[in-house]
Amino acid sequence: MLLNIPYSEWVGYTASVVLMISFLMKNIYTLRIINSIGAILFILYGIMLNTSWPIIITNLFILLANIYYLYNRSKLI
After folding, report:
1. pTM (predicted TM-score)
2. Could you tell me the residue range of the domain that residue 34 belongs to?
3. Does the first or last residue of the chain, that is N or C, have fewer Cβ atoms within 10 Å of its Cβ?
4. What distance in Å separates the CA atoms of residue 71 and residue 43, rounded to the nearest whole number?
Protein backbone atom coordinates (compact mmCIF):
# COMPACT_ATOMS: atom_id res chain seq x y z
CA MET A 1 0.00 0.00 0.00
CA LEU A 2 1.35 3.40 -1.00
CA LEU A 3 -0.13 6.63 0.40
CA ASN A 4 -2.93 4.52 1.86
CA ILE A 5 -3.96 3.41 -1.65
CA PRO A 6 -3.74 -0.29 -2.60
CA TYR A 7 -1.22 -1.20 -5.31
CA SER A 8 -4.01 -2.54 -7.51
CA GLU A 9 -5.57 0.93 -7.63
CA TRP A 10 -2.22 2.46 -8.55
CA VAL A 11 -2.01 0.05 -11.47
CA GLY A 12 -5.56 1.00 -12.51
CA TYR A 13 -4.82 4.74 -12.27
CA THR A 14 -1.59 4.31 -14.23
CA ALA A 15 -3.40 2.29 -16.91
CA SER A 16 -6.03 5.03 -17.21
CA VAL A 17 -3.42 7.77 -17.57
CA VAL A 18 -1.46 5.78 -20.18
CA LEU A 19 -4.68 5.15 -22.11
CA MET A 20 -5.58 8.85 -22.06
CA ILE A 21 -2.08 9.81 -23.19
CA SER A 22 -2.31 7.33 -26.08
CA PHE A 23 -5.29 9.20 -27.51
CA LEU A 24 -3.29 12.42 -27.62
CA MET A 25 -0.93 10.92 -30.20
CA LYS A 26 -1.18 12.13 -33.80
CA ASN A 27 0.73 9.16 -35.20
CA ILE A 28 -1.42 5.99 -35.23
CA TYR A 29 1.67 3.79 -34.76
CA THR A 30 2.63 5.64 -31.57
CA LEU A 31 -0.98 5.58 -30.42
CA ARG A 32 -1.16 1.80 -30.79
CA ILE A 33 2.15 1.26 -28.95
CA ILE A 34 1.15 3.42 -25.98
CA ASN A 35 -2.40 2.06 -26.03
CA SER A 36 -0.97 -1.48 -25.90
CA ILE A 37 0.99 -0.56 -22.78
CA GLY A 38 -2.25 0.72 -21.24
CA ALA A 39 -4.06 -2.50 -22.20
CA ILE A 40 -1.31 -4.59 -20.60
CA LEU A 41 -1.60 -2.54 -17.42
CA PHE A 42 -5.39 -2.98 -17.46
CA ILE A 43 -4.96 -6.75 -17.88
CA LEU A 44 -2.65 -6.74 -14.87
CA TYR A 45 -5.20 -4.63 -12.99
CA GLY A 46 -7.95 -7.13 -13.83
CA ILE A 47 -5.78 -9.95 -12.54
CA MET A 48 -5.02 -8.03 -9.35
CA LEU A 49 -8.76 -7.60 -8.75
CA ASN A 50 -9.09 -11.35 -8.20
CA THR A 51 -9.44 -12.02 -11.91
CA SER A 52 -11.98 -9.49 -13.15
CA TRP A 53 -12.83 -11.19 -16.45
CA PRO A 54 -14.64 -8.28 -18.16
CA ILE A 55 -11.56 -6.06 -17.74
CA ILE A 56 -9.16 -8.82 -18.79
CA ILE A 57 -11.13 -9.94 -21.86
CA THR A 58 -11.79 -6.42 -23.16
CA ASN A 59 -8.18 -5.31 -22.82
CA LEU A 60 -6.82 -8.58 -24.19
CA PHE A 61 -8.93 -7.96 -27.31
CA ILE A 62 -7.61 -4.37 -27.54
CA LEU A 63 -4.04 -5.60 -27.13
CA LEU A 64 -4.45 -8.28 -29.80
CA ALA A 65 -6.06 -5.79 -32.21
CA ASN A 66 -3.16 -3.38 -31.66
CA ILE A 67 -0.63 -6.15 -32.23
CA TYR A 68 -2.43 -7.23 -35.40
CA TYR A 69 -2.45 -3.73 -36.89
CA LEU A 70 1.11 -2.99 -35.78
CA TYR A 71 2.29 -6.23 -37.40
CA ASN A 72 0.42 -5.56 -40.65
CA ARG A 73 1.78 -2.01 -40.78
CA SER A 74 5.33 -3.30 -40.46
CA LYS A 75 4.76 -5.63 -43.44
CA LEU A 76 3.69 -2.66 -45.59
CA ILE A 77 6.88 -0.69 -44.94
Report:
1. 0.88
2. 7-76
3. C
4. 21
